[in-house]
Known about the structure:
Bound molecules: ligand C2E, magnesium ion
Radius of gyration: 74 Å
Shape: rod-shaped
Strand content: 15-25%
Amino acid sequence: MSPLYSTPELQRPGVATDPPLHRTLREQQILLDSAGVGIVFLRQRSVVRCNQRYAEIFGYASSARLVGINTEAFYPDRDAFRELGRMAYPVLAQGQSFRVERQLRRRDGTLFWGSLTGRLINPHDTTEGSIWILDDIDEQKRAQAALSAAEREKQLLFDSAMVGIVFLRDRHLTRCNDHFEQMLGFQPGELMGSSSRRWYASDEAWEEVGHRCYPFLASGQSYEGEVELCRKDGTPVICEVRSKSIDPADPSQGSIWITMDITERKQAQAALSRAHEELEQQVQDRTRELRETVDNLHREISDRKADQERIYWLAHYDALTGLPNRALLAERAQRAIQVAQEKGTPLAVIFLDLDHFKHVNDSLGHRVGDALLVEIAKRLRAVVRDKDTVARLGGDEFILLLPGANAHGAARVASKLQEASRQHYQIDHHELTMAPSMGVALFPQDGSDFDTLTQSADVAMYRAKLDGRNTFRFFTPEMQAQSVRALQLENALRRALERDQFRLHYQPQMSLATGNVRSVEALLRWQHPQLGQVSPAEFIPIAEDSGQILQIGEWVLRTALAQLKAWRSCGFPGLTMAVNLSAIQFRQPQLPELVSRMLTEFDLPPDSLELELTEGVAVDDPHAAVATMDQLHARGVRMSMDDFGTGYSSLSQLKRFQIFKLKIDQSFVRDLGNDSNDRAIVSAIIRMAQALGIRTTAEGVETECQLEFLHEQGCDEAQGYHFSTPLPAADLEVFMRQHLHRDSPADALA
Ligand code: C2E
Ligand code: MG
Ligand code: MG
């Protein structure tokens, strides 16, 4: 503690130190020392005295060290020092206190803020000096600067924030930043004091937001959410809002609201989500389209596959019976032939053709024919082994491919097929029998490839047909030549009628009783420019097979009747005409009608016509045959049984058939001269026929001897080279005229 009296001023010699003054001074000294502020007494700008605090503020250890120091040292520079002097003394000179805050300089050179208050001791005499009170306010100054910087920063933030900041009290705006007003389209300051209702579209909207937000604020929580505000021009603004009470305990302090315009963001979001939805929709649409496309593709593929399978099936199988067709057969045959070749094993091919299948189609219709084929196909399939192939070539032709089968095996299969065909087929109410003719070809002797083997089997089948059908034949090389001719004939036959290649020859049938020409038999002749004269025995079976026999037969009937008409009207009135009829013609339901029509056409009596039938007519369907014969008989047409004795018909059947006459086959007549057997047969036939009231004609009579025997036996007529070969009409007419003079034609049979 520095004693105030230690100041030189006070201890100056000569100055009386009376006890009251002394006390006062001491009291002053205590006051100075205990004051929290620095106090200095200056004169002539130098320190006269100061207290300890003053010394401390400037960084001096004791007040004594400052005595006599020019106060300029306490200022940052001379200018600052002088400026203060200039400011202070006019005030001080008025006797007033001068107060200022200034930056001062400590002893170590650092600057600090000090608050100075000075006063003159004697305003009338400045030389008496002045007293200054100094307070170190550096700390306070710095805090203040920091505070105002913070304030400034806050304001800056407030003003430049990109969000709207609003202070509300009682839902009235007390303060807001520019951004808020800008955001809502108001002028700066325009909203001051307004109710917040002003930036809502309606009372309802305003109240709704109040109900939504204030409970949070009241409980001290902040509210965060979206609020739709309304611009001054009425357009909506969607804002993200954060609000909080300034003091939850005191609602009257109001609340602060930070609002951010998210309209664009919202719009962008909406656009985005719309785009998203659209995209989603597009993706869904596209996916659906794709799925449909894929489904369609799948369907198309499976359709195509099914089509392909169907095409394959159609290309390889017979649609009616489901049996392999020729194409598949050819494939399998090729493979089978290869195996047979490699392993040296046998292989057989059977060509099968149904006998008289065409009649079923013609008389019962295609539907029945088809159903029959299906049943036959099943039966064929049932007879053979799994590894065998049964194929249908079309029509009534089938081929059996029998890998591993030799001649013996093939014969067994053929027999089994014959056996199987013996049972009748039941199609609707029809009981049908259908016998096959078969030809067998063996690998490799009858052909080393499929085509040759098939041709060979076909030729053998053809032979089986010629040999009486319902049988099978093995191929032989001789057959080959014959079959080539058969093919040629079949082709040539197609044109024969239109090219007028047919003629009729007539052979007389002589009454043995009178020696007269009783009737003539029309025999068909075919003269082909290349093939020459073709025998009816050769071409008629071919014409029957191809169905051409119907047209040909009609031509024969018409030509023969025309000729008969001509003869009957030129000198042979009692003459009758015998016309050969194929079994196929006979099965035509319209035959009786056709015959009657022609007789009427030529104005001939029915009994002037004699239809020569073979026993075959009754083989397939005896009932139908009897019915047709009954009809013909009823019309007065006569029927004779040709080639009698070669077939199976019994005499009792002849009666039922309404047969007028039977013709003993030339095979019995031929050897009558030396075969006692034949003589017995012929005489038996004649007698039995006589007993049944049926007339007899002997065919192929060539000798007088034969004629004699027949005459003895009571045969009615004879026909043969002995009398005449078959002749053209003109020649026969000459023949008949030659025989006319012997007996009267009126002598004809009653
Ligand atoms: P068919 O009806 O039995 O005719 C008699 C056949 O014996 C004829 O042969 C005839 O020329 C022959 N012939 C006649 N007298 C003698 C003889 O003394 N000795 C020998 N060896 N033969 C004799 P063709 O004309 O060759 O006729 C053969 C067969 O062709 C006929 O046998 C007949 O079944 C058939 N045919 C002929 N013309 C027709 C026709 O217009 N329609 C039909 N469906 N068949 C016919
Ligand atoms: Mg005849
Ligand atoms: Mg005959």
